[in-house]
Model the fold of this input.
Amino acid sequence: MEIAIDIGLYVSYLLVIVAIAAAVVLPVVYSLGDPKSLIGVGISVAALLILFFVSYVLSSDEITNPKAAATYGVTPGTAKLIGGSLIMMYLMFVGAIIGVVANEVIKIFK
Done:
């Protein structure tokens, strides 16, 4: 019975890897046929990088719990990276909420 479970797990791992590869490779292959579609992707990636840079600059490298930081190996640089990631997540969450509300208001007036 254990052998069947092991085989099933390995097949599942393989299928997940194939699905991830297909999700990444196929849009890239499709985009190469239409280079103008890559402009939108490039603008989106640039906007995300700029947003992360701003979030990273705004974050602090202060460690409030040195004992826990030592336990988990958190350095001031890691704390700044985590803080920047959290600020970026908050900004994107607020942006998504604003976008949903704006979309619903626009639908009311159409």
Notes: DSSP finds four helices and no strands in the chain. Residues 76-109 form the longest helix (34 residues). The chain has a mean pLDDT of 90.
